[in-house]
Amino acid sequence: MTDLPGASDVLDLDSLLSDDERALRQKVRDFTVQRIKPDIARWYEDGVFPVELAPELGELGVLGMHLDGYGCPGRSAVDYGLAAMELEAGDSGIRTFVSVQGSLAMTAIHTWGSEEQKQEWLPRMAAGELIGCFALTEPSAGSDPSSMATTAERDGRGEDAGWVLNGSKRWIGLASVAGVMVVWAMTGDGVRGFLVPAGTPGVTATPITQKLSMRASIQCDVEFDGVRLGPEALLPGAFGLRGPFTCLNEARYGIAWGAMGAARDSYEAALAYSQDRQQFGRPLAGYQLTQEKLVNMLVEVQKGTMLALHLGRLKDAGKLRPEQISLGKLNNVRQAITIAREARTILGGNGITLDYPPLRHAANLESVRTYEGTDEVHTLILGQHITGLSAFR
């Protein structure tokens, strides 16, 4: 499944993939090795998102990968998952860009937009010519979007009436470089979605700095001060929280795969280091304590990858349920963090440098663990499923 060194694909997961799926995985893996891994340490240290990769990722065919029409690749859920896994083996920030662009912003337009909106935005977004963002989270409403304070009020009367948008959003990925924002706001009819083009007066996006995680990525504070929008800005098909939650489930699915890419890369780095590093006259890999760590990492990478593949097959069959996505996101991110941290211990002091990826992956995964539903939120989703009782409040 993962082409790990030696006999590391113990379960022969690779045999569960088609030739086309393996070819797609190899194509994205080659891109990651050639375009991400050589520069990721510098991007991470400098706190820079390589925006120049956007059109290259479009050409690679991973933007809006699971969507059909309008220039979108129209690939399967498993294809998208394999791509997410390979990209996150490079860095969570790069996979997050693909997720925000495709699973969040493009999915919102593709699922809930008008034909005119789809024609206007999706082809350029699929090509990476235009970047989108997804503005849901607020300074006081992260895990509880029903408490959002951002409002959109009618600007006039009749069908031609526009909207006035006011409020704040926080931790909005790519907002400062986005050509279009998908903004969720409370209206008299509940939560609705709006498309806000770049340069609209009254919109201010400020990158959040001094981050200890996701440094090769952009997250912003966004302010909306009397932003006037025409009637064409409204996503006509989105009513209530079902609109953003549909998009969030797409992103959560991709995370279940992506986290295993970071975990696998951490494991591979530790394995290679342990085979080369000599201590007390023999390789670190020859000691029982090291082998136990490597085996524990491998077991969880194999299990997590198999789980992600099962979710992908369910999704392609139209049978994937939200609680199954929650189980995948909760388990795989939690295990990936454990693997990255354990891999760092094999690297010793060298592991705290950017010469090696595990600690960078571990830091990034703290963000991945938090966004698109915290551990606690996914625990409560699963708890409600198995007991029939909601414990959110």
Automatic annotation (TrEMBL):
One example GO MF annotation: fatty-acyl-CoA binding
UniProt cross-references to Gene3D superfamilies, sorted A to Z: Acyl-CoA dehydrogenase/oxidase, N-terminal domain, Butyryl-CoA Dehydrogenase, subunit A, domain 2, Butyryl-CoA Dehydrogenase, subunit A, domain 3
Sorted UniProt keywords: FAD, Flavoprotein, Oxidoreductase, Transit peptide
Region (Disordered): 139-160
Signal peptide (UniProt feature, chain positions): none
GO biological process: fatty acid beta-oxidation using acyl-CoA dehydrogenase; fatty-acyl-CoA biosynthetic process
Every Acyl-CoA oxidase/dehydrogenase middle domain range: 133-227
SUPFAM superfamilies given in the database record: Acyl-CoA dehydrogenase C-terminal domain-like, Acyl-CoA dehydrogenase NM domain-like
Cofactor dependence: FAD
Pathway assignment: Amino-acid metabolism; tryptophan metabolism; Amino-acid metabolism; lysine degradation
E.C. code: 1.3.8.6
Residues in Acyl-CoA dehydrogenase/oxidase C-terminal domain copies: 246-386
Domain Acyl-CoA dehydrogenase/oxidase N-terminal: 18-129
Catalytic activity: glutaryl-CoA + oxidized [electron-transfer flavoprotein] + 2 H(+) = (2E)-butenoyl-CoA + reduced [electron-transfer flavoprotein] + CO2
Domain of life: Bacteria
Protein family: Belongs to the acyl-CoA dehydrogenase family.
Protein name as it appears in the record: glutaryl-CoA dehydrogenase (ETF)
Taxonomic lineage of the native organism: Bacteria, Bacillati, Actinomycetota, Actinomycetes, Micrococcales
